[in-house]
Amino acid sequence: MRKIKIAPFMPTEVEVNEVSANRAEIIAYPFESGYAVTMAHPLRRLILSSSIGYAPISVKIEGAAHEFDNIRGMHEDVAVFIINLKNIRFKIKDESEIVEVSYSFSGHKDITAEDLTNDKIEVVNGDIHLATLNEDATLNFTVVISKGIGYVPSEDLMDDVSGEAIPLDAFFTPVRKANYKIEPILVEDNPNYEKITFDIMTDGQIGPVEAFTNALETMNKQLSVFNGVLDVDINTTPIKKSADDSELKPFLQAVDALGLSARSFNSLDRAGIKYLGEMVLMSENEIKNIKNLGKKSLDEINECLEGQGFGAEYELSDITRANLVKKLEQLNN
Questions:
Q1: In this structure, are 154 and 58 located in the same domain?
Q2: Do 323 and 186 belong to one domain?
Q3: Is residue 111 part of a domain?
Q4: What is the C-alpha to C-alpha distance for residues 141 and 59, in angstroms, rounded to an integer?
Q5: pTM of the predicted model, to two decimals?
Q6: pLDDT tens across 144-184, in order?
Q7: b/e for 22-55, b at 16 or more Cβ within 10 A?
Q8: What is the CATH number of the domain that holds 318?
């Protein structure tokens, strides 16, 4: 006789197998049919996209005006030097999000990544070749290393680069591989259960288990937006009242009337942001993640929001937020 369930089966087993220092397998089972891929696919995406790493975002080389220049006594052109530098995987030793480190080398020397370790940063792939110098060569350069996620092209970092520094494409992601496989597993006499095996490899900036737990934390935070649904009593929650335009008028100011610089306005315009209220509804991280929005533009936008009375401490009521969302949808359609 077929058993009638009133809740899905809860997986009970998890295993962690350390294949090497930077590679691990994480195994969980048993999942009901279809649940394994529901869990595995978003976790894999988060492992690849939300793991925090470190990367050089700019370099200033004494005697080099641009990346196609060359340094007397250095075998490599500046372009090759930059490629080698971007292949080096750094770690900031303290809790800083960005550090600037300067180096000076002279005389005959084969410079490797290991030579860049100091009290501010460490290098996890010390055998990477950086440059070769002749006896009469002198190489002075300054690197800015930042914490981040994902990939940021050099053109998006122009606002964060000062002076004669050369902006670099920043590849922050420390995860080199994140795959999963799903296999059937027998539970009692039922073969329709599943087992997930994650295979995760990192570059050494973080460990594979840390990358996995970071992804879990990110998923939990993203899902927490729905926690409010659990607190809603549909029988007692009042219907939200509509608001007239006078109440929402401060939020409906056009972005092009806020006096922002051309760079800041263009970034918002390309993101489809037309009204002040759309920025008020966004979190600080959402504003930071607007494409092509550099630090100077971000500071300018935050100053604008504070000037309009919508600084970091400002909180919208639930009713005002709902009415504002509805009004902006009407205006943008």
A1: yes
A2: no
A3: yes
A4: 7
A5: 0.65
A6: 999 999 998 988 887 777 778 899 999 999 999 999 999 99
A7: bbbebbbbbbbeebbeebbeebbebbbebbbbbb
A8: 1.10.150.20
